[in-house]
């Protein structure tokens, strides 16, 4: 059962890393394109760029919603108000919860066990 939990944990971490970076990259690319169109608008007035800008802003809005959903899920917090972009709070909460649930160093008659494998062996022996 421990191996299954370890495998599940590994897959969840891979999924989170993949999804989070896809969201971050998509967000950066869309914001860069919108900024580029804004600069072009200052020089000329193009209807096509206006339509493209509206479309990009809609895509960015969806990406931002996905990002907020990811953080809400990761932090297991459902107290976020709509439009709240305080991702630092969610990141801190998620990491704090993981640290609070962890087992600190174990002192066994002067021998301190810090590594996860050492802690596991201590409890299994």
Walk me through this protein's architecture.
The chain has 125 residues and is mainly alpha-helical. It has 4 helices and 2 strands, in the order αααββα. It has helices spanning 2-43, 47-75, 87-100, 116-124; strands at residues 106-108, 111-113. Strands 1-2 form a two-stranded antiparallel sheet. The radius of gyration is 22 Å and the shape is elongated. The two termini are 18 Å apart. The relative contact order is 0.07.
In short:
The chain has four helices and two strands; from the N terminus they run H-H-H-E-E-H. With 125 residues, it is mainly α. The longest helix is centred in the first third of the chain and has 42 residues.
Key terms for this structure?
single chain; mainly alpha; 4 helices; elongated
**Count of helical stretches:** 4
- From the helix content, strand content and strand pairing, which structural class follows? mainly alpha
Number of domains: 1
Strand content: under 5%
The coarse silhouette is: elongated
Could you tell me how far the N terminus lies from the C terminus, measured between alpha carbons in angstroms?
18 Å
The biggest beta sheet, please? 2 strands, antiparallel
| Number of DSSP E strands | 2
Name the strands of the widest sheet in spatial order. Answer: 1-2
Q: What is the H/E string?
A: HHHEEH
Low-confidence stretches: none
Helix percentage: over 70%
Radius of gyration, whole Å: 22 Å
Q: Average pLDDT value?
A: 75
């Amino acid at each position: 059962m421990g191996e299954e939990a370890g495998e599940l944990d590994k897959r969840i971490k891979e999924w989170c890393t993949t999804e989070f970076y896809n969201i971050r990259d998509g967000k950066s690319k869309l914001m860069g394109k919108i900024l580029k169109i804004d600069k072009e608008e200052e020089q000329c007035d193009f209807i096509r760029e206006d339509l493209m800008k509206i479309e990009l802003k809609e895509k960015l809005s969806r990406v931002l919603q996905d990002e907020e959903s990811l953080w809400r899920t990761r932090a297991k917090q459902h107290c976020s108000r709509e439009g709240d972009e305080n991702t630092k709070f969610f990141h801190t909460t998620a990491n704090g919860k993981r640290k609070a649930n962890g087992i600190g160093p174990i002192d066994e008659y002067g021998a301190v066990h810090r590594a996860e494998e050492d802690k596991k062996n201590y409890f299994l022996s």
